[in-house]
Amino acid sequence: MKAVFIVYGQSLTQPVGQLLDKLNIRGFTRWEEVHGRGSHQGEPHYGTHAWPSQNGSILSMMDDQKAEDLIFGLKRLNQQAEQQGLRAFVWEAESVV
Amino acid sequence: MKIYETAVRKPVSTILLFIGVIVLGVFSLNRLSIDLYPEMEIPMLSVITSYPGAGAADIEQNITRRLEDNLNTVSNLKKITSRSQDNMSVVILQFEWGSSLDEASNDVRDALGRIERYLPEGADKPMIIKFSTSMMPVMYLYATAEESYNGLYKLLDEKIANPLNRIEGVGAVIISGSPVREVQVNVDPKKIEAYSLTIEQIGQVIAQENNNIPAGSMDIGSERLAIRVEGEFSESSDIGNVVIANYGGREIRISDVATVTDTVRKKTVEETINGERGVRVIVQKQSGANTVAIAEAIQKQLPELMKTLPPDVHIGVLFDTSTYITGSINSLTETVMYAFIFVVLVVLFFTGRWRATIIIALTIPVSLVTGFIYLMFFNGTINIISLSSLSIAICLVVDDAIVVLENIVKHIERGARPRDAAIYGTNEVWLAVVATTFTLLAVFLPLTMVGGLPGIMFKQLAWIISIVTTFSTVAAITLTPMLTARMLQFRPKQTYKGMGIIFKPIDKFLNGLDNLYARLLTWAVRHRTVTITGAILIFVSSIMLLSVVPTDFLPNSDSGQINATVELPVGANLEQTKAVAYRLEKTLIEKCPEIKRISISCGADDRAGFAALFGNSGSNAISYMIMLHDLQERKKNHQRGVEEVAEVMRQEIAKLPEVVKSAVSTDGGGGGMMGGGVEVKVFGYDFDQTTAIAKELADRMRTIEGTRDVTISREEMKMELQVDFDRDKLAKFGINTATAATFVRNRINGLTASLYREAGEEYDIVVRYDEPFRESIEDIQNIVFYNNQGRAIRLSEVANVVEHFNPPRIDREDRQRVVTVSAALSGAALGTVAAAAQIEIDQLDIPPGVDVVMSGSVKDQQEAFTDLLTLLALIVLLVYIVMATQFESFKLPFIIMLSVLFAFTGVFLALWITGTSLSMIAMIGAIMLVGIVVKNGIIIVDFTNLQRERGLSLNQAVITAGKSRLRPVLMTSVTTILGMIPLAVSSGEGAEIWSPMAISVIGGLTFSTLLTLLVVPAMYSAFNAGKIRVERAANRIDV
What we know:
The structure holds two protein chains of two kinds. By secondary structure, chain A is an alpha+beta fold. Chain A has two helices and four strands; from the N terminus they run E-H-E-E-H-E.
């Protein structure tokens, strides 16, 4: 089992959701308005006057294979709209209740 | 869910809601009626009291003064003027603009109730007449006839006036100048003297003979029959056969001592139309009725009515106030359409996207229709003010949509899908959009609260702009994102494919402009002292310009109508007057091919009643009503404007030696109060003193350039014949003055003995001395009457007939006698002439007890300007407050406010260059600018703040922000400027009224945009440089 944490520019909310549906990933937790900035480049997403854009984020647990497919899909999504900002982090989910 | 999110997610509801608004708007538009100005009822009441037999001075003393003293207590009263003339006192009460006339007339009635008991016994009960613009005629018709001329009154009354009266909204139809049938019994005084008869006896006999009397009823058998005595004359010639007396056993018939003629009354007024003898039919509307609708209905009905008339009677429209109104509205509608097209083109130019342009353009109709809905709910009309507000609104409503769309497009270009971009893009900017709308509201909502005449003019403007822009903001954060989500495609950058190719050079140009501006801005920020000082110098020097720009109250417009009155010396009879009138007419027609119709009315109608208050004063007066050809037609044929034709007329009048007084005015259509001129009032009790001063002042005013038709309101002393009865002698004969006076009146003026009936109509039977016996003083002296003992008394035994001079009228204002010296303007601004007149006034040697003050339009102008300036201060304060809360700063709004100063510089400059005077309309333009130009400042300062927050250095932030905001600033400014150009240059009917507003907006906005782009960043940098130093110093201490 893998834990995947996806952070994306708010306007990618729907494409990311659709991707999860397409890959039949049922379970996830979503935070609609989160703020942050990237390590290297891109604008900060603060929801302030200066940096008005905001992020959304999803945390989801899935099988390893699905995680791989998801990362692949997300990569493509990111390439389509690089400036929106999309990051995903994967780590091992040690135990699941 | 937020409103924009809902809108994007529920496109069907959104689109249907907006379609609903549009439908309601179009529905309202169809229900709205057309008018020239918003309804401005002049709040005036007149109190008319007649006191037969009293002279002007008696009337003043016994009636007018008492009424004035009491009426003065009525609340909301602004001015009280009065006119005391022979037999009649007219007190005119003018109330503050916007006061309710119903309330006022109740108050007046109460005041009159208190005073009535103290009025002289012979005086009639005072009558209250409501005065309003709607009393002004809507339409003048004329009728000319050949054979039927003598029967014209009856024909017109039955076939034209009555049907027209039935048209909804028509108040009164007055027929003026038509001959009236009258049966005259002209008595030879010598003959009746021989038989010891009197006029009164003849009158009595006629009255007793001309009777139908029911004599009761009788039962004959089973039937009840009525008995009638039919004594009425069946023909007018019967009157001659009536026996009046037996003298020496011989019957004396009326025909023995008099001639009976069935003729028309001797006319006191003569009307001609284009040289033909005719009759004028004046149509008045009911208060609140719609001029254009009435005129249309009349025009439609006329051809049918004409069919019922004999073939020699021709009826035509002499003057139709509605043509000017519809003409103005049409040309204004045209300019609104042009504004729309320009705005759309500008948006297309800057965005380079068809679909985006359509989305933005859609917000225009959607928001504008709310203006119509407002007008319908508050009984407004489509008029010059409401339409020009719409054309201003066109430029403002797109701004919000542009900002929202721009941000959404930014997201799309970054790769977001249109639907998401629409929601999140709007989310980022909606607050800023709402805030800028608040600044606009801070300007326009206070305008709805102005009082006085400007208040009435601007109320609609302010409400319409407030409502329309508010709704445009709503549309910008709902409709615009929804449409963008649906219509815009995912397309990262302009590809210049297909039609897009034309945007390539445009883009190149705009990029070049960006770079050029960036360089300029860099220089300006580095040399901010020079920039700021230079700007301040420009502003200060523009204030000097203010003394060069002339001021005016309301711009004059070419309505193609000239009204003129020409007076011959008092006492000239109708024949003389007519001769002069036609001579002038002939020369005018020769010299001015522009004249389409010329209608002349000579003398005064003694039956016109209320209308006589406005009309000519006597047989010596001529009034001209001249219609020129349509403005467009005149332009096509390179003919002169109305003002030039009027000038020709003035010159021609000056050549006539008989004329003692004349006035030529060119304002029509807009109603009476629009006439702008200089009026100087001379207050003082002493007639000789005030008249002398008024005359001197008039002479001086004639020397001022730009004045025309300088007239003095006080008429020359009028010569009259006074019959002074000796009471003692009268008493000896047992006659009192009143009886004796009646005798004189019956012989000269005539005694209406009875009414002759024919075909349901009644005509007066008038008995009096035959004309040859009432032509000289001796004729009066020779009048014989009898006392109760039957003794004949010759008037010369008991009275002297003397020639006497009497002031014909005493005018008063604010309970003081007044003489008004007034001058019309020609080719000069009101303010300039008023200033020159003031200098002349100061040079006068004014005795104590006499006061000379400026009045008229000058006073209105000063009042209006003071009102507007106060308002301007209030607006500036409110805008400051709104901006200060938006930026949470005292300093930044101050910087932005600088752009307002430059806007005023631009206004003065534009007015000066175009030679337009600073009128009230131009002032509104300047006030609106406050709202429009601060927007530019807000955009720049807001974005600079943002760059600073993003961590850029001060100067970097200023330059980056400037460069990136250049296009939005230019876009909103250019839409407004171009949108206003059709208004400024339109030459249609009435264009003179609104073009000053457009000129001042264009000038102000152009100038302030150019300067704002440099000065505001420079100021920003200057103001914050100090702060940064302080902050750095503070940090150093901390470390």
